[in-house]
């Protein structure tokens, strides 16, 4: 092996393709040919150190000693070949230029050598190509090394991006996702593989965030270069994940936006912490009920809804009686335990949209939202009496809880939060001054009305025993034949002093007091008894339907009561129809399905009453074993004047028929309504236009009639 260093005195300018001292390795069995190459390169202006080897061992040693910038190799050498040298060099360094310089290489051999990895070949008898070939290959080698370094840098950056726990994405100018790191896929619940369809913004963000990105954020980024703020991602469960997001614009050398990038960090833990702080700021620390500030906010929202929809809102001030005595005799820990249990029971009295708050000390405030009538506030009092009828265990003691209650009503007693709270507080003090466990409405008129309802509730207790209830019947007319297909049994109360009490006055009292269960059983048996009399008169083909309340439907013995009534009154099950509202069956769909299946197996028909006014979830129609849908009277009343109601009725009829259900329209009061229902193939109709509810003695006269 021969190594020759550059002649310092005759140093020539460096070629443009290489900076620094060029390291040249020559593989050549003829030393004179090697020197010829050295002289030719030096004459061309190259500044280099060089090494000459003529065997495989020499080449291996030279490759091990240092890195070379370029290799010039003969093709045919005794005991050694250019092909062998090429393999050894490529194994060591795939980028170093390897140029064959030979006087005996053929065209075919040269082509095969280049296919094997040689960069070029030069004939010894024509070295004019050597200098430009060396210059070109050094440039390309440098480019390959720079590209490889850039690729390595890209891989390092990619490894960092893949290792981060934040979502990192690269977006094209239209929002298409060109790159998404593993952390981003994990946050979004996407598989690691990227062979699926190209991702878009809708795969990463909720619809509202996509709109904000495209209409607000991206235009801002294109103008300003960057944006940061809070948005949300779509996680694997299609719910929102709050994130802190940065969007950047990246421009090319001409200043034109080439692509966008975004980084999103999961801030759900921070949001949970903020929500906890907010909860603490808006809730009482002892009972976890809303405090006064949160109460006012909820109360204001309830009043806004009531104004829009023409509803009532009740606010009740409750003051615990004798709480100071509990604190003084049993200690503050016992008093705190009592307040926590009172709060828990109060929450049980209310619906989800109502509010119960701790107003301070031993005072609580209830806001009851979305009431049909002012008198409905009495149902809350009834629930309070029921819930607090059992004592509260405080350590080894039992404490009976009673309240002094003041009630103010919107819109009767005020139209703003401050007035209503003040009036309820005033009424509460009046109740407190009247004795223990009293309540007072703010206005004398409402208080008198409340007393009237309490008297009615007391009278209801003996109405069954005194035989004051009646079961009237309203016919359901077959729209095709004009004949009576069924009778709906409707309860009426003939009070000995008041006369006929409107159903709207006493049915809510029955429901609130729990008396609806025995009264409902009476209605069921009375319906079966009346049907038995129709059969005896030769009219047994008609069916009779009765309404079922939520309390009845949830009664553990409901099915047993039906079986006993059918058996004892010799009633055919298919002639009995039970009308149940949407809200009742949707309170517990699983239990409702089981009960409806048992009724279906028994042969009893079931109808959904007030269809379209409750949950309006069409899924139950195919899941529950039903026979009939009853279109609520609210849609029928304005059938002539409201196109929306007409569309709803028409769609309900079509839906019922497609599901194999019978459809009944109730509340029909005009011939034009009847004509519309006939035109759209409604099965049955009932209402004052056809017949008012009739006493038992008058019902059989309906059966022979025909309504045209």
How far apart the termini lie comes to 122 Å
The CATH class designation of the largest domain is Alpha Beta
By CATH, the topology of the largest domain is TIM Barrel
Oligomer: single chain
Give the overall pLDDT as a whole number.
Answer: 85
* Helical fraction: 40-55%
Number of helices: 25
Unreliable segments of 5+ consecutive residues: 2-18
According to DSSP, the number of beta strands is 29
What's the SSE blueprint?
Elements: E1 2-4, E2 22-27, H1 31-43, E3 48-53, H2 56-65, E4 70-73, E5 76-77, E6 80-81, H3 82-92, E7 98-102, H4 107-116, E8 120-123, H5 130-163, E9 167-171, E10 177-180, H6 182-188, H7 201-204, H8 207-224, E11 226-234, E12 240-251, E13 257-266, H9 268-282, H10 292-309, E14 312-320, H11 323-330, H12 332-349, E15 355-360, E16 363-371, H13 377-387, E17 392-394, E18 397-399, E19 403-410, H14 417-433, E20 439-441, H15 444-463, E21 469-478, E22 484-495, E23 499-501, H16 503-513, H17 516-536, E24 543-547, H18 550-553, H19 558-568, E25 576-581, H20 582-587, H21 589-602, E26 605-611, H22 619-623, E27 628-631, H23 633-637, H24 643-658, E28 662-665, H25 671-679, E29 684-685
Helix pairs in contact: 2-3, 11-12, 12-13, 13-16, 15-16, 17-19
């Amino acid at each position: 092996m021969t190594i020759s260093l550059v002649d310092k005195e005759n140093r020539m300018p460096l070629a443009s393709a290489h900076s620094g001292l060029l390291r040249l390795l020559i593989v050549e069995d003829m030393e004179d040919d090697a020197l010829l190459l050295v002289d030719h390169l030096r004459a061309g202006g190259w500044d280099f150190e060089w090494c000459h080897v003529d065997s495989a061992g020499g080449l291996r040693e030279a490759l091990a000693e240092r890195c070379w910038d370029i290799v010039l190799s003969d093709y045919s050498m005794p005991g050694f070949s250019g092909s062998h040298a090429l393999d050894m060099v490529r194994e060591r360094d795939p980028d170093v230029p390897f140029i064959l310089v030979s006087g005996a290489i053929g065209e075919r051999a040269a082509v095969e050598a280049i296919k094997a990895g040689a960069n070029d070949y030069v004939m010894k008898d024509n070295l004019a190509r050597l200098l430009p070939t060396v210059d070109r290959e050094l440039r390309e080698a440098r480019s390959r090394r720079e590209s490889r370094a850039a690729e390595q840098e890209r891989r390092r950056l990619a490894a960092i991006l893949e290792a981060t726990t934040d979502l990192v994405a690269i977006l094209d100018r239209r929002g298409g996702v060109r790159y998404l790191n593993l952390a981003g896929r994990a946050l979004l619940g996407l598989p690691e593989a990227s062979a699926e369809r190209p991702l878009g913004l809708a795969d990463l963000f909720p619809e509202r965030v996509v709109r904000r990105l495209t209409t607000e954020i991206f235009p801002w980024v294109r103008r300003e270069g960057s944006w940061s703020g809070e948005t949300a991602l779509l996680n694997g469960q299609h719910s929102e994940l709050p994130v802190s997001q940065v969007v950047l614009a990246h421009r090319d050398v001409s200043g034109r936006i080439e692509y966008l990038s975004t980084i999103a960090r999961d801030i759900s833990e921070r949001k949970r912490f903020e929500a906890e702080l907010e909860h603490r700021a808006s809730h009482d620390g002892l009972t976890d009920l809303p405090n006064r500030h949160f109460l006012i906010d909820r109360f204001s929202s309830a009043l806004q809804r009531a104004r829009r929809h023409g509803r009532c809102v009740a606010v009740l001030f409750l003051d615990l009686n004798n709480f100071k005595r509990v604190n003084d005799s049993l200690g503050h820990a016992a008093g705190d335990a009592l307040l926590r249990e009172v709060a828990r029971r109060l929450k049980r009295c209310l619906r989800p949209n109502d509010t119960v708050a701790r107003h301070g000390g031993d005072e609580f405030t209830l806001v009851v939202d979305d009431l049909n009538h002012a008198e409905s506030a009495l149902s809350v009092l009834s629930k309070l009496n029921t819930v607090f009828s059992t004592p509260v265990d405080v350590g080894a003691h039992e404490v009976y809880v009673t309240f002094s209650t003041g009630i103010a009503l919107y819109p009767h007693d005020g139209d703003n939060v401050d007035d209503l709270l003040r009036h309820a507080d005033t009424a509460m003090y009046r109740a407190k001054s009247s004795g223990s466990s009293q309540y007072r409405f703010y206005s004398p008129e409402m208080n008198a009305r409340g007393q009237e309802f309490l008297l009615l509730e007391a009278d209801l207790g003996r109405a069954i025993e005194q035989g004051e209830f009646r079961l009237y019947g309203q016919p359901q007319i077959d729209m095709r034949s004009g004949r009576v297909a069924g009778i709906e049994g409707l309860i009426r109360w003939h009070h000995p002093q008041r006369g006929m009490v409107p159903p709207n006055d006493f049915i809510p009292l029955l429901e609130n007091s729990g008396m609806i269960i025995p009264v409902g059983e009476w209605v069921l048996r009375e319906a079966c008894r009346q049907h038995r009399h129709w059969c005896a008169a030769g009219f047994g083909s008609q069916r009779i339907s009765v309404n079922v309340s939520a309390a009845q439907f949830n009664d553990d013995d409901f099915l047993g009561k039906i079986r006993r009534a059918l058996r004892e009154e010799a009633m055919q099950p298919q002639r009995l129809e039970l009308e149940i509202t949407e809200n009742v069956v949707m309170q517990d769909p699983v239990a409702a399905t089981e009960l409806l299946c048992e009724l279906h197996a028994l042969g009893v028909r079931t109808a959904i009453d007030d269809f379209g006014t409750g949950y309006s979830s069409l899924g139950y129609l195919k899941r529950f074993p039903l026979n009939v849908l009853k279109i609520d009277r609210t849609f029928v009343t304005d059938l002539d004047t409201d196109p929306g109601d007409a569309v709803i009725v028409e769609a309900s009829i079509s839906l019922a028929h497609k599901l194999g259900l019978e459809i009944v329209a109730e509340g029909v009061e005009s011939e034009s309504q009847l004509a519309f229902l006939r035109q759209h193939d409604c099965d049955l109709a009932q209402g004052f236009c056809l017949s008012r509810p009739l006493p038992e003695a008058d019902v059989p006269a309906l059966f022979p009639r025909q309504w045209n």
